[in-house]
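Input record (Table S2, row 307):
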Amino acid sequence: MSETGTSTVHARYPDHLRQQVDDYLEGLWFSVPDAREAEEARGTEGLVEAMRYSLLAKGKRIRPVLALSTAEALGCDPADLMPSAAAIELIHTYSLIHDDLPAMADDDLRRGVPTCHVVYGEDVAILAGDALFAEAMRLVCEEQGGGPAVQVGILRELSRATGVAGMVGGQYLDLKGAGAGGPDALAAMHALKTGRLMAVSVHIALVLAPPPPEQEAIYRAFAREVGLLFQIVDDILDVAGSEAEMGKAVGADERMGKVTYTSLHGMDRARALAAESHGRAMDLLHQLPGPVDDLAAIADTAFARQS
Ligand code: GRG
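Output record (geranylgeranyl diphosphate complex):
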């Protein structure tokens, strides 16, 4: 256990779930060079290689692990949600590939390796992101169990979370400098850009195994809080983190003149806000009956992470 700010960090990240996610991702047809399925798309080997390159680079897999941990807390076998949890990681990877492009953040390093467009070119990187999004939809339609109501429910959640009222809309607001409108505008932008994809990781488990309404409200509040916490810490790490641990360039926000939690509030206040958010996330979990240790570990990791 360790003390960080005013909040206490207890739990260990559920590495067994992360391993299951990695194993599942490595088994996807485009993760396996020369897979038979690729014959349908003869001549696209370069595109498939770019998809594989970015997806299998070492990410924390925090979104799929959050989805599986929520399923576990709701009494499901986490494996029952794996295709949709993996779909979120594919969508996340697409967003990173596109965010790194010269037209957006223009980053050369991601997950400790050169970015997709640096290795494969901007044209291929755009298509690799697009194809990962399409593969994510296919995974839910073809591999997710629970029947059509669950599949459509999850697709609905994913499309809402990633569209204009979600990640893409948030990215647009960020590019247009909406964060400069003050603390509320900054929080609203992040709630869309980063928060919605974190939160939907919880929401898809609620589709698979709906709890009673009063518990569902707590899960939803927890999902929002973890998204906020993750973003505040991301802003802190962009100033105080190390490139070696983060696997990407640090200081990018300042270079691009972005308004962040640290530029708006100062480092000490940003750390205090993160500690408050972590405390609220833990309070919410304490109100839930399920086995929430892995969810607590994710909140702890989102708070205390160095990468
Ligand atoms: C291009 C449509 C589009 C959206 C981009 C995700 C995103 C929206 C931008 C990335 C910019 C950024 C650094 C946001 C902060 C939060 C974030 C998504 C960090 C990276 O996620 P991690 O830390 O990365 O989970 P790994 O590599 O571990 O998966």
